[in-house]
Design goal:
The protein is mostly helical. The protein has a single domain, classed as ACP-like (Non-ribosomal Peptide Synthetase Peptidyl Carrier Protein, Chain A, Orthogonal Bundle). 61% of the residues lie in helices and 0% in strands. Helix 1 packs across helix 2.
Length: 96
């Protein structure tokens, strides 16, 4: 499972770069645990909307209307990867 989460983290980093057109940023430049907003990657609310749409299109991720819960999911790449993996595993369990 650890390897899968690592792969998901890399995918999310690449998704952030492409969805937000961060031309001068590579996946290696993005710290998995660093905040995506503020002093971390420095994203803003418009970036959050774009990223949310990209996550929804790519992974079918359903984001909560609860602003606090959504903020927690967008805290870092690692938090987004956990959200994606949780929703993936829920979907796989339902298919079994």
């Amino acid at each position: 499972m650890g390897r899968r989460v690592h792969a998901t983290e890399l995918e999310i980093k690449q998704l952030i770069i492409s969805a937000l057109a961060l031309e001068d940023v590579s996946a290696d430049d993005i710290d998995t645990e660093a905040p995506l907003f503020g002093e971390g990657l420095g994203l803003d609310s418009i970036d959050a909307l774009e990223l949310g749409l990209a996550l929804q299109k790519r992974y079918g991720v359903v984001l909560s209307a609860d602003a606090q819960e959504t903020r927690q999911h967008f805290a870092s790449v690692a938090a987004l990867a956990r959200l994606v993996e949780t929703q993936r595993s829920g979907g796989q369990e339902a298919q079994s």
